[in-house]
Amino acid sequence: MKTTTKYAAGALAATLGVTVLAGCGGSDDKASGGTGGGSKTVTLVSHDSFNASDAVLKAFTKETGYQVKVLKSGDAGAALNQEILTKGSPRGDVFFGADNTLLSRALDNGLFTPYEAKGLDRVAADAQLDAGKHRVTPVDTGDICVNYDKKYFADRKLDPPKTFDDLLKPAYRNLLVTENAATSSPGLGFLLGTVATQGETGYQDYWKKLKDNGVKVVDGWEQAYNEEFSGSAGGRKAGADRPLVVSYASSPPVEVLYADPQPAEAPTGVATGTCFRQTEFAGLLDGAKNEAGGKALLDFLISKRFQEDMPLNMFVNPVVEDAELPELFTKFGATVGTPATVAPEKIAENREQWVQSWSSLVVK
Predict the structure, then answer these.
(1) Residue 351, Cβ density class (10 Å: 0-12 exposed, 13-18 middle, ≥19 buried)
(2) Which string of b and e fits 290-309 if b means at least 16 CB within 10 Å?
(3) What is the tens place of the pLDDT at every residue in 179-204?
(4) Cα–Cα distance between 338 and 47 in angstroms, integer?
(5) Taking a C-beta distance cutoff of 8 angstroms, is the pair 106, 278 a contact?
(6) C-alpha span between 204 and 210 (Å, rounded)
(7) 3-state helix, strand, coil in the chain (%, to 5)
(8) b or e along 104-114 (b: 16 or more beta carbons within 10 Å of the residue's beta carbon)?
(9) Cα(235)–Cα(223) distance, rounded to whole angstroms?
(10) pLDDT per residue over 300-337, tens digit each?
């Protein structure tokens, strides 16, 4: 990877006014069945923020003969839950959006048919969390981080926070808004970041102190970023009063790209000492009607063409090592050298316990 900035996790493109693809191409599903011998449509089930340019999707159709239909299903957790409920009779052929915080749920429920995507040798080794089994294919990475409103801190001649520990200081009382770890992917990622940095025995005390320092918890990213955060375009319009928000290291480029006129400098910054690394995966759904089309789509998701299309459509980092990032993304996004991480097996073992403990401390 050329850089280590954000993930578009949850909902950046969709909630900042980008038109998210609801479907592309025709609807020739009459021949679907078995391994998809005659179907010309391949269905991708995803969270709401999947987005790709028309030119790239048309290129996939030209190369393979398959047209892509995208079935959006809410945030990542909700989309995954629906696939678990329909296991064996999936609503599509490929699922995209299970990240490392939720991956064990997908794998433990046997949602995917193993497939080794073509070009996997070009994918960074640290993104291949299911290496050897190939039940899922890594597609993108990114970092969940606290973002700050530059104007707020400049006006008060106050330095923005840099680390998790900084957020406990009295100077930042009542300034931070975060998402519910039980209902939001970035909220869960931020919780895992505190587990990684404070320890399994120290994160609870950390959250008690953060609550005492006035942290505000809302259901999801859209509310936190677009309604509560004073640094975003949506937040300014809504009269938001929280200058700190849990978002992504690549959120600042969004504020530049969709501003009119575009500013010379992003209005928001990133506290790079508060970041947690996410990796998103796609997999061939067990029972897929168009298995051949699904395999072709997985190959395409890690092609250089698609990987270089992602940053300004979903605001995530490519996982293939030969993909180049656009200048706007590298100029305004934050580079995170050493994000916090938690081993997938540790997340699988403790996720529910950590979330329940967090909920009892912070929400109830």
Answers:
(1) buried
(2) bbbbbbbbbbbbbbeebbbb
(3) 999 988 899 999 999 999 999 999 99
(4) 27
(5) no
(6) 10
(7) 40, 20, 40
(8) bbbbeeebbbe
(9) 9
(10) 999 999 999 999 999 999 999 999 999 998 899 898 98
Strands 176-179 and 216-218: parallel
Quickly state the pLDDT bin for 38 (edges 50, 70, 90): low
Give the contacts of 49 (CB within 8 A, at least 6 positions apart).
Answer: 8, 9, 10, 11, 12, 13, 14, 15, 20, 314
The partner residues of 318 in beta bridges, in order of sequence, read 140
Give the DSSP H or E segment for 216.
strand 216-218
What are the backbone angles phi and psi of residue 274, rounded to the nearest 5°? Answer: -125, 25
What does the block give as tokens for 127?
A: 């993104």
* CA–CA gap between residue 230 and residue 250 (Å, rounded): 17
The number of angstroms, rounded, from the C-alpha of 141 to the middle of its chain's C-alpha atoms is 8
Identify whether the C-beta of residue 9 lies closer than 8 Å to the C-beta of residue 277.
Answer: no
User: Per the confidence metrics, is the pTM higher than 0.85?
Assistant: no
